[in-house]
Structures are given as C-alpha cells and as structure tokens.
Design goal:
The protein is built from four helices and no strands. It has one domain. By secondary structure, it is an all-alpha fold.
Length: 88
C-alpha cells in the first residue's frame, strides 16, 4: 500500500477542536490555527488531498503551540496573583 492509497482512503483531519482551544487560550495563534483549519476543510471538500495533508500538519503544530503558550501564560498569571494575595 503506497502513500497515495492512504491519502485516497482517509482525508486528513482539520483539527478544528484543537484550533478552537488554541483560539480560547492564545488569541493571535488561535486565529492562525483556525484559518489553516478552515483551509484544510476546504481542501478536503475539493479533493485536494496534498494541500489538505500539508495544512493539516501545520494546523496541528500551530494549535499545539497556541495551547501550550496560552496555558503557560495563564498559569503564570495565576501564580503571580496567588503570590500577591498571600503577600498581603
């Protein structure tokens, strides 16, 4: 089974849920992830599997980056607020 047969069987994922989570946690990176996710969905709809596979990988890494950065920023803010409250 070659790579082309795999692409024909199952369309690449658009990772829309990851993109929405990235959007909620880190707005600027989440917007980029959502744009790539929609582009992946449209590429799947028009049977452009090569472009869909490429943008699917991109949206996955961008969304994970947004989730990690957003979580780190949120955790840092919460720690700083707790330290401020305990210092009073």
């Amino acid at each position: 089974m070659g790579a082309f047969e795999i692409l024909r069987d199952k369309p690449p994922k658009d990772h829309m849920c990851l993109s929405i989570c990235a959007f909620l946690l880190c707005f600027p990176i989440g917007i980029v992830a959502l744009i790539f996710s929609v582009q992946t969905r449209h590429s799947n709809m028009w049977n452009n599997r090569a472009l869909a596979a490429e943008t699917s990988h991109q949206v996955y890494y961008i969304a994970v980056l947004g989730i990690v950065l957003g979580s780190l920023i949120t955790l840092t803010i919460l720690i700083l607020l707790m330290m401020d409250l305990l210092a009073r």
